[in-house]
Description:
The chain is α/β, with parallel strands linked by helices. Helices cover 57% and strands 12% of the residues.
Amino acid sequence: MxxxxxxxxxxxxxxxQAVKIAEELKIPAxxxxxxxxxxxxxxxxxxKEAKSYIDSGNLVPDSVTNNMVRARLDExxxxxxxxxxxxxxxxxxxxxxxxxxxxxxxxxxxxxxxxADNDELVxxxxxxxxxxxxxxxxxxxxxxxxxxxxxxxxxLIAIYRERGIVKEVDGLGxxxxxxxxxxxxxx
Length: 187
Ligand code: ADP
C-alpha cells in the first residue's frame, strides 16, 4: 500500500514533506522537478530540452516527462513503493501513470493533497527565491505557475477523488506538524 502521490500547488511544501514522509515509510521520494533541475545543472540533453519550459513556469512536454518517469519507476528502489512528487501534473499524465503501473500490475494506493491559500503560497515562494535562487521563483513566473496548477493540475484531484484514495492535509504551520498530520492521514 505504499505507492503514493503528493499533489498541491507550488509552495505548498510538497518537496519538503515528500522527503520526510518517504524516509519514514522507507520508500524513495521521486520529484520530477528535482530530476529536471539536476539535469539542467549537469547540462544533459534532457536538461537542455526542459530548461526553457521550467524557466517560464510552463510544463515540460509530456513526450519528455513521461519517458523520464517511466525510466525512474523501473529502477529497483521503486519496486515496492514510492512517493511521487510533481507527477502527474495534467490529465494525460494521469493516464500515462496508470499505464506505466498497469504494466507492472500496480496502481496508486493513496493521493496526499497538500493545501494552502494563495497569498501564503506566493509569500513562501518569494522567500525561497531569495534563499535558494531558483530561476523559476520570481513573482511573474510564480503567478504563472499557480495559474498552470489551477488549470492543468487541480482537475486531477477529481479523478483521484472518484477512486476514493485522496487524503487532504492542511499545509499551514510548522514543517514537523504538517509531517505528523500527513503520517496520521496515511495510517
Ligand atoms: P513546484 O511544485 O514548486 O512548482 P517543481 O519542482 O515540482 O515545482 O517543478 C518545477 C518545474 O518543473 C515545473 O514548473 C515544470 O516546468 C517542471 N515539471 C515538474 N514536473 C513536471 C511534470 N510532471 N510535467 C511537466 N513539467 C514538470
